[in-house]
Design a protein that fits this description.
Structural class: alpha/beta
Largest sheet: 7 strands, mixed
Radius of gyration: 24 Å
Strand order of the largest sheet: 4-3-2-5-8-7-9
Shape: globular
Number of helices: 17
Number of strands: 11
Length: 495
């Protein structure tokens, strides 16, 4: 979670805007050169490059606009002695280990509010969970079927409870006692349908996959979601969130027609005239994915769910303000990143295997390309408060097979399924990274072949250097598949 101290925010936001303008100018200079000045050498490869670069510049511009609109929502701590609202706290359970669930239930029971009631929503129908509920001051709700997955579980609980608001916590999310005190003040505005808070992973010191996933999300739960907050486009992330019951009733309950029910509900609420807020304060901590397979499954569900909404659920409406539509569009197009990255993998391989390249590269190419890249990176580093690690980049890029698969799955005959991210490590296997291994082998072969057949000429060295960069990005997941534990935990870690 990337936070900025209150006393630095004005300066931070001003500098983000200045750096955004600088990056935009250099991006336009590069784009002008690529489209109007550069001479295509191979038209097929040239248009692959153009499409990929335009996509990335659009994404980058979206980020620049987003970080320029950051807004901090910081209500006063709620005084429940002068209010009357009641709150149901839902802990959704679907077969997670009982020791993890107990930590979550114990923490939920400690949340401070005089009229809060904790409920265990057990879709796993576990006798252990039922027994756990009897040992804590919490209610236990189970249903006959699992229709609608997590959304159906919550809707069933709503039919059996009566709180004015309800909070949702996944089975691994340990809430802080002050959770509701921090959040509930926002609901003084009657139009606010829900308030989202950050997700952070407390197991990141002991697991490299959890640490990488945390670093990747740090940017989202920092400047990105604060920027969406400034545009009125915050969407629910499914946990560590509080909803106004009447708002959810206005859309007929949590939608059960999507594996990303949180995003779908956010859009429906927006269409009904409700608003949302993001409180950028860590008031709950959870478990991150502990192996590469679990991480990819999580990404695939999010990707498929988002793209299904884009292509099949008509997410945009006339009631959206342009800034809101733009922010949701950015969230959807993120899942096309894998296609752009695939093109960057193919281009150096084409040159080293066949001598084909997209443009005739003159000596002044770096003059146009490097300022754009360096200015974009400078803004990324600054807006991330100098906290970003390399993991945040390569966890996104090296997930390209999952993002590509997500798009194909949207148009397949197989319906999407809600899959709970495992809360324990799976067995050691290279199966989740078979595509990364295949690409690594292909890139290595291309580099060797190019050096042997064309010699160490400048163009060959440049393309080999790009391949080395891609190898550095891709090899991490292969290593983490074998052993995701951090070095200090390796000896005691067992699958």
């Amino acid at each position: 979670m990337i936070e900025i101290p209150r006393e630095r925010r004005a300066t931070y936001l001003r500098n983000c805007r200045i750096l955004s303008v600088i990056a935009a100018v250099f991006a336009l200079v590069y784009l002008r050169w690529l489209l109007l000045v550069a001479k295509p050498e191979n038209l097929f490869l040239y248009w692959i490059l153009v499409i990929a670069e335009v996509f990335n510049i659009v994404q980058a511009a979206g980020y620049w606009i987003t970080v320029s609109r950051q807004r901090w929502t910081e209500p006063e701590l709620a005084d429940f002695s002068s209010s009357e609202e009641s709150i149901d706290i839902f802990v959704t359970v679907m077969g997670e280990p009982i020791d993890i669930v107990e930590k979550t239930v114990a923490a939920a029971a400690r949340i401070r509010h005089p009229r809060a009631h904790v409920w265990l929503l057990d879709d796993g129908k576990s006798p252990q969970v039922r027994d756990l509920a009897s040992r804590y001051p919490v209610g236990y709700i189970v249903r006959d079927n699992n229709r609608g997955a997590k959304a159906g579980n919550i809707n069933h609980a709503l039919s059996m409870t009566h709180g004015d608001y309800f909070a949702i916590f996944d089975a691994d999310q340990i809430a802080h006692p002050e959770f509701l005190e921090v959040v509930m003040g926002v609901f003084e505005d009657q139009k606010v349908a829900f308030v989202q808070t950050p997700q952070v992973y407390y197991n990141r010191p002991e697991n490299r996959v959890a640490a990488g996933a945390h670093d990747q999300q740090a940017l989202f739960y920092g400047p990105i979601l604060r920027g969406k907050n400034g545009s009125g486009a915050v969407f629910s992330c499914g946990t560590n969130v509080v909803f106004r019951r009447s708002a959810i009733e206005a859309i007929g309950g949590i939608p059960e027609d999507s594996v990303t029910e949180d995003l779908r509900a956010s859009l429906l609420l927006l269409d009904k005239g409700f608003t949302s807020e993001y409180v950028a304060k860590v008031v709950a901590e959870g478990l991150g994915p502990m192996d590469v397979g679990s991480y990819f499954n999580q990404q695939f569900r999010w990707g498929r769910g988002g793209l299904e909404i884009l292509f099949k659920r008509r997410p945009f409406s006339a009631k959206m303000r342009p800034a809101q539509a733009f922010q949701y569009a950015l969230s959807f197009i993120y899942w096309f990143t894998g296609w752009a990255y695939l093109s960057y993998l193919l281009l150096p391989a084409f040159y080293l295997f066949a001598g084909a390249r997209p443009v005739q590269v003159p000596n002044n190419y770096p003059v146009h390309f490097l300022p754009y890249v360096l200015s974009a990176l400078a803004l990324l580093v600054y807006s991330g408060n100098y906290q970003l690690r390399f993991d945040a980049l390569w966890f996104t890029l090296a997930s390209f097979p999952v993002q590509i698969k997500s798009l194909f799955s949207v148009f397949s005959a197989t319906p999407g399924k809600f899959v709970v991210t495992p809360k324990t490590r799976g067995r050691v296997t290279l199966k989740p990274v078979r595509w990364q291994i295949a690409v690594l082998a292909g890139l290595t072969l291309a580099a060797v072949y190019g050096l042997l057949t064309q010699g160490p000429q400048p163009s060959v060295i440049n393309n080999v250097a790009w391949i080395v960069a891609h190898v550095v990005i891709l090899q991490g997941f292969v290593r983490y598949s074998v052993n995701p534990a951090t070095p200090e935990y390796e000896e005691s870690d067992t699958p």
